[in-house]
């Protein structure tokens, strides 16, 4: 939602005749049963063969926090995270484990800190200076660009992508094609994580 919602008006301006109805189920999507035409999910490509899946945005992630937090306590080296409250979300339970493993950082307990139910709570806590969160670049790029968050150690690839998925039977549906093509274009136009920090 944090990536899609700020851009959705662009699709609507281009295709005013296509109505979008959004839902956010926690369970796996079953297209016919759930009456869903297109799904957007973050993860790895693991849909059944009768589902088309196309990656439109590769994900990189890294620690993010408020600029004020950096002023209150140093975050010069990744090991300095030991002196800060790590923020976790139930929707990405292993994010700290993964980032620490990928970057080779030791001396930081990936289970310590404060847990939040949703990613929205997590990011608001980070913006408010409560601690340091792990942020996927596509979902925090606007906050970093606006100066609400900083990424002191940049972002690293985590092997995940955002996928647009739909049943093969709908592959030529003009509305599906229009939305898919727009997502692919918007993904290509999204700023990369290079140089952010």
Model description:
The protein has 197 residues and is α/β, with parallel strands linked by helices. The chain has two domains: 5-58 and 159-189, Periplasmic binding protein-like II (D-Maltodextrin-Binding Protein, domain 2, 3-Layer(aba) Sandwich); 60-158, D-Maltodextrin-Binding Protein, domain 2 (3-Layer(aba) Sandwich), CATH 3.40.190. The chain has helices spanning 5-14, 31-34, 67-72, 95-103, 119-127, 137-145, 174-189; strands at residues 39-43, 51-64, 86-89, 114-116, 132-136, 156-167. It has a six-stranded mixed beta sheet with strand order 1-6-2-5-3-4, with helices on both faces. The radius of gyration is 18 Å and the shape is elongated. 29% of the residues are buried.
Kindly report the average pLDDT value: 89
- The CATH homologous superfamily of the largest domain is termed Periplasmic binding protein-like II
Amino- and carboxy-terminal Cα gap: 23 Å
Could you name the ranges where pLDDT drops below 50 across 5 or more consecutive residues?
none
Radius of gyration: 18 Å
**What name does the CATH topology of the largest domain carry?**
D-Maltodextrin-Binding Protein, domain 2
CATH top level label of the largest domain:
Alpha Beta
How much helical structure, as a percent, in the residues?
Answer: 25-40%
In what range is the share of β-strand residues?
A: 15-25%
Number of domains: 2
Tell me the structural class: alpha/beta
What is the second-level CATH architecture of the largest domain?
A: 3-Layer(aba) Sandwich
Number of strands: 6
Strand order of the largest sheet: 1-6-2-5-3-4
**Helix and strand run:** HHEEHEHEHEHEH
Task: Describe the sheet with the most strands.
Answer: 6 strands, mixed
Number of helices: 7
